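We emphasize that the prediction below concerns an isolated chain of 421 residues; any contacts that depend on oligomerization or on bound cofactors are therefore not represented. The input was used exactly as deposited, without trimming of termini.
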Amino acid sequence: MASTQTLSHIYPLGSRVNELGHLELGGCDAIELAERFGTPAYIVAEDDLRARARAFIAAFEAAGQADFEVVFASKAFPATAVMRLFAEEGLGCDVASAGELHLALRGGFSPRKLVLHGNARDDGEFQLALDAGVGLIAVDGFDDIDRLERLVAGRRERQAVLLRVTPGVRGETHEKISTGQADSKFGVSVAQAPAAIARLQSIDGLELRGLHMHIGSNLFSTEPFRVAIAAIAGLGDFPVYDIGGGLGVAYAAEQEPLAIEDFVAEVVGGVHELLGAGKRLMIEPGRALVAGGGVTLYRVISVKDNVSRWVAVDGGMSDNLRPMLYGARYEADVADRPGGSTRVQLAGKHCESGDVIIKDVLLDDPRVGDVVVVPVTGAYGHAMANNYNGVPRPPVIFAKDGEAHVVIRRETLDDLHARDV
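Result of the prediction step, given as a token string:
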């Protein structure tokens, strides 16, 4: 008889507690996944990612926006298999380095579906983008203009560009993931934008298509978008506007972010009101596409009572740096005993007191050998993974309809010295 226990909405679409009382992800038993692939491991519910991509496209169509592009912000999960999935779903891809550009092309994106941006691209990265034929380059400042003017000289085909403008709007989020405030490392100010626009329009090898902005990540309100759109509206009338990404996701059960369709409808409404209809509208979701589709599996190594109950697992800041980087909050469950009332500190294995994955999390009396599941790790877990303490990085496993397969293998100890000279 199937379990009637209801899982939190923060788990991937289709997750459930199965007949054995185990968490099930992508139709696969979490305990069996841990035994088969080891821990730590990133598990990705493939159908969840596809559903979110399709939801963004459907939302634009429902909002009456005929000309649009949903562009995956690949920094959230720069993995070839993830990029291939979104290329199959018809999305574009936002790349911020030569490495992300390389992965996007390897993942099957047409170069014309790529947007290159970032605040410090050197000549080599620009040259790779130009040679690949990327669809758009987001120009971040006057030094970018100088570089591009030199690099496009004598080229037959003009390179389409957007100018990234910092609208002077602070996203309602953590300061380390707010990007639209006036004192930002990204873009040019509204005051400087007219001069940058004039420079770009004067260069024969460049074609200025429009403006780009991004105000921050994990936002739970569209009001900052409306304020930011209003801030750039007076800079001219352009055919293309890229308003960036930033739609928030729920990391805890009590959080209720905007639904994709509501977010898109409100943004499209603001664009039509402030910029007019008939524009090509681009949006760059990253976290909102991949965060909820991923979970991380750990195995408990140690349990001790040092004032608090400390439950140490076989991963930590090498596979999820976000709690240590800017205090990101997560929830967790023991895979075969979801729920629980034992308050613990879920700690990592690394030699840092700050290596705590979740403070004061409620679990069901965790014991050595238990498999612990941390949901909503699809964004920035793999992207920020590192080898601190010489720990190999985890594999990425795709799960769908009860079948699971490795898309990125677990690193080995030999991999740790593979670049030695």
